[in-house]
Each structure stands twice: as structure tokens, then as C-alpha cells.
């Protein structure tokens, strides 16, 4: 299901439920001219990187085709794409999560159709979501 993986990648890029991770420094860290003192708490914002135009063209546009020639979906830890974190704390459930989402999407699109019940729009602050939770009218396909 290669295109389903593109849709999942793009959903996790634009609207991941986890927007970043906290870390506490165990020593002074010097990075790009800044010093983060030992003991500080740092928030590494995946969201800021995933929605950065320097890393993703038209970053705020949902475009699953951007992943078509890109194999990040299986490695899950490209330089700028880390929906499941990275390093020693990489999410151990990432493959299970992908399988579950793939099964859900497969049944949704093959067995159901839907139309928007109300007009809604995407907002990006403080997190990516639809303003009215995107109410839909769902119908089972015959
Ligand atoms: C879309 C679904 C999921 C997303 C976006 C996600 C994301 C993440 C992220 C970003 C981390 C790293 C946290 C950190 O570095 O502090 C993490 C850790 C973790 N995830 Fe997931 N996860 C998902 C699904 C799952 C599932 C299905 C399971 C298990 C069945 C799972 C189990 C865990 C566990 C146990 C950790 C902690 C790993 C550690 O601290 O060593 N996750 N997840």
C-alpha cells in the first residue's frame, strides 16, 4: 500500500498528535553559538521543523504526493522528519501504528464515502486541527 504510506507520512507531518519532546540537559550544551546550561529543560519541536518551508516545499499544504519518491516512510527518522522521535527513544510502536492506520484507512476509503456536513477550515495554531472537528456525513458504499 505505497500511496497509503504517503498519506500517513503527510498526516504525521502536518498534524501529528505529538508536537515535540522534552529533554533535560545533563551537561552544558553549546550549539550554534548558544549555550544551554546543564539542568535546563528543552522542548524539541517536531512541529516547527515539519511545518518549516526550508525543509518542506509549501509546508502548510497537505500533499501526500511529496512522499512518492521518498522512502522516509519506512525509515521514520530522516533529518527533518521525526514524527516518531529518534535515537534511543525512537517510538517502539511506530510500525504497529503504521499498520493500524493503514488498516483503518483501507476500510474507510473502500467501504465508506463521506461529504462535509459543515464548512470547516484548517488552523495551525496552537496545533494543526480543523476549527469544528470536521463534521461529516458518512455513508456505507454499496
Ligand atoms: C501515530 C502513532 C504514534 C506516534 C506519533 C508516536 C510517537 C512517539 C514519539 C515521538 C515518541 C518519543 C518520545 C520521546 O522521545 O520522548 C514515542 C515513544 C514511545 N512510544 Fe510512540 N507513537 C505512536 C504510537 C505508538 C504505539 C502504537 C505504541 C505501542 C503500542 C507506542 C509506544 C511508545 C513507547 C513505549 C514509547 C517510549 C519509548 C522510550 O521512551 O524509550 N507508540 N512515541
UniProtKB/TrEMBL annotation:
<comment type="similarity">
    <text>Belongs to the cytochrome P450 family.</text>
</comment>
<feature type="binding site" description="axial binding residue">
    <location>
        <position position="91"/>
    </location>
    <ligand>
        <name>heme</name>
    </ligand>
</feature>
<dbReference type="GO" id="GO:0016132">
    <property type="term" value="P:brassinosteroid biosynthetic process"/>
</dbReference>
<dbReference type="Pfam" id="PF00067">
    <property type="entry name" value="p450"/>
</dbReference>
<keyword id="KW-0472">Membrane</keyword>
<dbReference type="InterPro" id="IPR002403">
    <property type="entry name" value="Cyt_P450_E_grp-IV"/>
</dbReference>
<dbReference type="GO" id="GO:0016020">
    <property type="term" value="C:membrane"/>
</dbReference>
<dbReference type="GO" id="GO:0016705">
    <property type="term" value="F:oxidoreductase activity, acting on paired donors, with incorporation or reduction of molecular oxygen"/>
</dbReference>
<protein>
    <recommendedName>
        <fullName>Cytochrome P450</fullName>
    </recommendedName>
</protein>
<keyword id="KW-0812">Transmembrane</keyword>
<keyword id="KW-0560">Oxidoreductase</keyword>
<dbReference type="InterPro" id="IPR017972">
    <property type="entry name" value="Cyt_P450_CS"/>
</dbReference>
<keyword id="KW-0408">Iron</keyword>
<dbReference type="GO" id="GO:0004497">
    <property type="term" value="F:monooxygenase activity"/>
</dbReference>
<keyword id="KW-0479">Metal-binding</keyword>
<dbReference type="GO" id="GO:0010268">
    <property type="term" value="P:brassinosteroid homeostasis"/>
</dbReference>
<dbReference type="InterPro" id="IPR001128">
    <property type="entry name" value="Cyt_P450"/>
</dbReference>
<dbReference type="GO" id="GO:0005506">
    <property type="term" value="F:iron ion binding"/>
</dbReference>
<dbReference type="GO" id="GO:0020037">
    <property type="term" value="F:heme binding"/>
</dbReference>
<keyword id="KW-0503">Monooxygenase</keyword>
<dbReference type="GO" id="GO:0016125">
    <property type="term" value="P:sterol metabolic process"/>
</dbReference>
<dbReference type="InterPro" id="IPR036396">
    <property type="entry name" value="Cyt_P450_sf"/>
</dbReference>
<keyword id="KW-0349">Heme</keyword>
<keyword id="KW-1133">Transmembrane helix</keyword>
Amino acid at each position: 500500500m505505497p500511496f497509503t504510506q504517503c498519506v500517513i507520512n503527510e498526516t504525521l507531518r502536518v498534524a501529528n498528535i505529538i508536537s515535540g519532546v522534552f529533554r533535560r540537559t545533563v551537561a552544558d550544551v553549546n550549539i550554534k553559538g548558544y549555550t544551554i546550561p546543564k539542568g535546563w529543560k528543552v522542548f524539541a519541536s517536531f512541529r516547527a521543523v515539519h511545518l518549516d518551508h526550508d525543509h518542506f516545499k509549501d509546508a502548510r499544504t497537505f500533499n501526500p504526493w511529496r512522499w512518492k519518491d521518498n522512502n522516509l516512510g519506512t525509515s521514520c527518522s530522516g533529518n527533518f522528519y521525526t514524527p516518531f522521535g529518534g535515537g534511543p527513544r525512537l517510538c517502539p510502536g511506530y510500525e504497529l501504528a503504521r499498520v493500524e492506520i493503514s488498516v483503518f484507512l483501507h476500510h474507510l476509503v473502500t467501504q465508506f464515502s463521506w461529504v462535509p456536513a459543515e464548512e470547516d477550515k484548517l488552523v495551525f495554531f496552537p496545533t494543526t486541527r480543523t476549527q469544528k472537528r470536521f463534521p461529516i456525513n458518512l455513508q456505507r458504499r454499496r
